[in-house]
Amino acid sequence: MGMERVDGAGGGPGPAALLGPTVGVDVGGTSIRGAVVTPSGDVVDTVTAPTPHSAPALEDGIARVVAELRERHEVHAVGLALAGFLDEHRRTVRFAPHLPWRDVAVGGLMQDRIGLPVVLEHDANAAALAEHRFGAASGARNAVVVAIGTGIGAALVQHGELYRGSFGVAPELGHLQVVPDGRPCACGKRGCWERSCSGTALVETALEFLASEAHPESSLARDVRSDRGALTGRRIAAAAHDGDPLARAVVDDFAQWLGVGLAFVADVFDPDVVVVSGGVAGSAPLFLDAAREICAAHATGAGHRPLARIRSTQLGDYAGLIGAAVAAHEQAGT
Ligand SMILES: [Zn+2]
Question: How many CB atoms sit inside 10 A of residue 11's CB?
Fold first, then answer.
């Protein structure tokens, strides 16, 4: 538990602003992170608990996090952000790979349990809502958020509203086939964007480069000799930052595929802002300029059209829980 404050950019007080703060909860595979968030996007209190493995224990855990925050703050609604497939009404969790719910009507169940309105939101959508209202996409007409971690999650905000597609699946960008003859993917295809542009891809590319060429001078080669499992995206980024040539080449490869994929995004959605978030965003200074150049060169009509500003997240790993609180707030205010 801790008191933290993340300043939002503020926003005009709509009708919902009169209702006061809401709770946003990021229900992740390892932790439940809850926060009280004001209508202007400020995080005023947080509570964190480990994620239990069974559904009843998970429901207890979320209820406890919310109850602890309600002891200190008056709130009027709760939003839950989670990685998984929701039904089109966003009341039922159909499948969440890192959580125990399978076709469970979590919205109604938690609402009865907590005694406040509860809304569910996909975590990438929640993050996009937060970035649009208070973060790197503030003021954007159309914004795409690309969250890059172990894979790629994506969300699209059009004229202030989340675009969900007809069945709540859009936009699924991680499995676009971006890389010709690229790596095989668990989805059954080959060359999916996230297989060459993710934290996981950084490690795979490093291992490929290490296997194909001798890089005795690279600190990564020494790491792999001592413990192959020690290689992580974060470690590679740190080595690239320190000027390690192999790590730099790995990051350049990542930047290349990020740029090519973002050119698809520019062609399909024509956004005015793209926000890169997720675990790799902390290393954005290493790759974002290169990705911007590659995107600009690959987008159709390059040089004759305005292109989206490509920015790094402003809200970091607070985006999901702020967005969950925003979803609760805006739904309660309508
Ligand atoms: Zn795939």
Answer: 14
